[in-house]
Amino acid sequence: MSAKRKSWQTILLYVFVVILCVLILYPYLVMFITALKDKKEMYAIDHILPEVWRWSNFSDIWTAAPVFKYLANSMIIAGGATLLAILCGIPAAYALARMRFKGKGIFMGAVIMSQMFSPVVLLVGIYRMMVNIDLNDTILGLILLNAAFNQAFAIWLLRGTFMGISPEMEQAAKIDGCGTVRALIKVLLPMAAPGIITTLIFVFINAWNEYTIALTLISTDVFKPITVGINVFYGFNFIQWQYLFATSLFATIPVVVLFLAIEKHLVAGLTSGGVKG
Amino acid sequence: MKKKTLTAFQPYVWLLPSVVLMVSMILIPIISVFKISFSDVGRSGLVKGLNGVQNYLEVFEEPVFWHTLQNTIIWTVVVVGVSTVFGFVLAMVLNQEFRGRKFVRAVVIFPWATALIIQSVIWKYIINADYGSLNVLLKKIGLIDGFVNWTQTAGSMFAWECWVGIFVTFPFVTFCVLSGLQSIDGSLYESASVDGASFWQKLFKITLPLVAPSLTVSTVLNIIYVFNSFPIVWTISKGAPADQTHTLVTYLYKLSFTDGKGGHAAAVSVIGFVILAFCASIYMILSLRGEEES
Amino acid sequence: MKKKLISVLLCAAMVGTMLAGCGNKESSDGGSSEGGESSGKVALDVIISQYGNYTQDWWTEFEKTFEEANKDIDLNIEIVSWNDIYSVVNTRISSNEQPDILNISGFADYVADDLLMAAEDYVSPELKDNFVPSFWESNDMDGTVWALPILASCRSLFCNVDLLKEAGIENPPATWDEVLTACKAVQDKFGKDIVPWGLDISTDEGQAAFSYYTWNFGGGYTDDNGDWALNSKENVEAVEYIKKLIDSGYCNSAPFTDTRYPLQDAFSAGTLAMMIGPMNMVAADSKVNYVAADLPGEKTALGVCDQLMVFKDEEAGDERTAAITKFFDAFYECETYSNYMVYEGFLPATQDASDNLAANAEKYTVGGSDATGDSEYFKTFCAVLPNCKFYPMQKAEWMDVRNGVIDVEQQVCNGTLGAQEALDKLQESVAK
Hints:
The complex is a heterotrimer of chains A (277), B (294) and C (432). Chain A is an all-alpha fold. Helix content of chain A is 72%, strand content 0%. Chain A has one domain (67-243, 252-276): MetI-like (MetI-like fold). Chain A is built from 14 helices and no strands. Chain C has two domains: 39-152 and 305-387, D-Maltodextrin-Binding Protein, domain 2 (3-Layer(aba) Sandwich), CATH 3.40.190.10; 155-303 and 390-431, 3-Layer(aba) Sandwich (D-Maltodextrin-Binding Protein, domain 2), CATH 3.40.190.10. In chain C, the strands form two sheets. In chain C, strands 1, 2, 3, 6, 7, 8, 9 and 10 form an eight-stranded mixed sheet that branches. Chain C has a two-stranded antiparallel ribbon with strand order 4-5. In chain C, α13 (334-344) packs across α14 (351-360) and α14 packs antiparallel against α15 (375-384). Chains in contact: A-B, A-C, B-C.
């Protein structure tokens, strides 16, 4: 249908798109250029590009702070939280999509309500509870929290996905002798793949980018995720912008790559979740 | 064949893992925040016992609280509103076939995929009036003579914060709407065109109703996330000047951790919860009714 | 295709959880401090503020050395940045998880909630005698000393000599009027390229600015009786002067949010002509030709002295107190302590270390570099310290006043309120 588009429309479209891309990429460009500057040039205001391109900043950060460890922690926290959120979310979403039972409406309401409190608001409560169950300052504690705070979205999206898939196939599988669980795994889950992937990504991103809980909960340096770890470049007497931004780029890249890898599925997944959400 | 009682219990068994996770990790802290909001909390953070609604009364007496509440509403409405409209338009654009579409879609992912704390720090660096890269850039290309102070007033500071908020929020809307658009059957438009429908008619009669569910999802989630958003305002202004740019979340953080008023902070969080819960219940009532009808 | 992708993702997530399991095991080893007591070890949780980029390294080394020398004590030292330390400590206290030893600035709130041990109860007599008396007394509240001075710094007026010369100013300004003249000269000479005067009235450390200006206009926080006197004539004048600096366009553009750190960096980079800052603020590798002069007006410098304090633990016995005594004796031991002072670039609070550093600072190196200490520097600044004024931290309302004066500065400079009106309001609310 786009074949007969008028040429001025095409031009307008490209102008819009180019401006948009420049605008979006601008902060990242600044980050990249600043990360390559020498510390002394940080406040120089007469040129945009570095006078000396300090590529060594990108290698220095690994020794200036345990950046690799921070990244690995983030990976573990986000990966673990994602897995847990999905494993708990799939059965719950399945029950909500396929079964009739008392209290369904209340449960759905409660799930949404659970999102009303930002973790910042609950900091004190969260910290106390984690101390009580002896999980403060552990990576496991962060995994559990991130999984819990993403439950609502996971359930919501998965339920929508499941509802968008006709139950006939599972029923057929059950008639063939499959139990409910097997029918779920063999038939429904593969069909719900786009929705599941979307959920995975969404939870992963949220957990990867989480900052406030980790800040309060984690005190041991080697357990810090990258979002908290980069604080080491905010010293008492100075901010090392070049390291801060170099590390920030490393913290952003994995997520962007992940996103790009599944972009197609992502869009499809949101559809199935959205339509019946 | 299973017994009937077992079948009746089955749904709850399926819900169990999720319930355990949420109750233990979210409900318990919520209860303790409610309790603290009715408690006398010492400056050091020590909880000294219940004191009724004292914290709430004291919070209501603060002019800053009311200003903050107003800010929070502006912040939520502006950020979610603009993001939704812009995200929608962008989704329409990206739904067309054009060269480089894949690239643009990849680019749009960036703000979504970057940690808010990182976004906030970089924007603070960009808009700094003395050495910020925006001024350097604009001066280099000759758009400005001298450096502009982008955050001279509380209003301009807050506007920048809204800008950053929009910047990180619209991609989610775009992808939600895009997913809705792709599920629309192209033949609907063709038959509408045959009937002589204009662009606007098609937009309002076909597109909007069909992407409405996706838009609802993104709007509801965004309202919650934006309302509760912390790093942007905290990193860029910390509420300065003179507490004029707070939202409820940063205000309660300051109350709790800078001003040593933990009880007031808990009261503010409960107030925020009540506001959001009220909005959400309206949504729930509407959407559950819609579901029953369909 | 989709199936394959899912299985790959699931596998990845599973590997992640397995790794998480390992991470957690590590943590239970590291966090065994609570359980350690059963094995006869005393565990001490210590929170140290992050003074520089290499603070962690120094304390890791200290922990190792200390634990080797004291096999019965398990130190658990945690470095927290200044950005987070108040929220971290506050949250811990609300959860009854306060550390044993805390390094922070300000102790009155903890005393008010009856959380601290009196210093006399754990400081050995030799150590007590070794503290510079004015520092020891600065932590006295209602007749009891509640905390130990960990280190001190004092603030001076830093001037970029070359920039001032080029603008026709020969000497650092000695009065507030001269400051205005110097700012004007710099502005006329360099336009927008150089910021004449650095100002930080952010929530981060706006009380420091309040101190610089009010003290040197002859005012301050308290009157001669030690009662709050925030709305004095001199204070009003001082706050109005701050507003004048901003309104004349002499300051950095965002004094409400700029903390000291970017200002210091800008000064070190040579794009800021004058600012008041701590004596160790100029970066070691800076090429700026500068002097550190007396503050204008009354020449009253602000001394900042952070503290170490010990939290009560009703259940713990005498072994804990004995371990704490050992900890402080080890930390303040002349060699170790001198080493730390040079490492972080601060001034010592004990007499033997002051004497030692005034002569032998070259023996020690600065954190993260090969640069050595400078005896001359310690000699100069240790001599200045006794004349410094400190924040009235021992007054119970201090935190309210601290936040209050920042609010006043911001409201006045923002044009929301007049200086007199804002200070009157603050005085009224504090005196209440």
